[in-house]
Target: Hydroxysteroid dehydrogenase-like protein 2
Amino acid sequence: MGRMGTLEGKTVFITGGSRGIGRAIALRAARDGANVVIAAKTATAHPKLSGTIYTVAEEVRQAGGQALACCVDIRFEDQIQEAVQNVVNTFGGIDILVNNASAISLTGTLDTSMKKYDLMNDINARGTFLCSKICLPYLMKSDNPHILNISPPLNMRPLFFQGHCAYTMAKYGMSLCVLGMAAEFEDQGIAVNALWPRTAIWTAATKENGLSASDCRKSDIMSDAAHVILTRPSRKFTGNFCVDDEVLYSEGVKNFDKYRISSDGTLTMDFFLNEHLDEFTERIAREQSANKSKL
Model:
């Protein structure tokens, strides 16, 4: 596929960047010397959740990048427009948009309030569309523009809807943006891709949903995979629904143990994927065996 190698000097706008996967992607970009925009609602410390836009911005600077903290609720168009203009005034443009902000409620239809339904759709589907729409005029001026949505592959199996229909609808809204925008902006050279984890990632959200750290991988696996995608030529890699370990395997990573928080426990598979970890591992073994037989 080929890679451009580094995000040095690139301006990366990350929604929901104050913790979890968004924070991890921010710090990975910072190590390259990128300009990182932390766009999130958390401006003051939360009593139960660590991280604010300002603490992550300081971490970005410590890691070697430039940082801009933007307090923004992506449900509101004027706030996004103000944040984007602030970014352009500060860094001169936008090269990459990571639509990471998301709301989750793994509840059935009868247990999902319309307030929660609206929240998930306003942040996940509408927020992703809106952030993309406002950033696109600036992305068109970049030499390697990318939009990366943290959303799952599209699959119409009822299994992926039946326990949490509203949440799936909202997350698939993000994925539909990939499907449509990748085709719409292909001629302009703007890559639009999705990235999703094969296993649960240890974040505040997974902890809230009852998982233990030993059942999860570190958020670093998502940030490393995102880095691979975002350093690929935008005109050659677009419209893809990527899985974290598969992206890294394509770059030569063979052992994923370093991404485990603990060797104890059993990794929890993500419920949006057809192929589970054991099937992926068996496929890798077959491919490696076939390659050896050709030597």
In short: The CA atoms of residues 39 and 170 lie 20 Å apart. The longest strand covers residues 35-40.
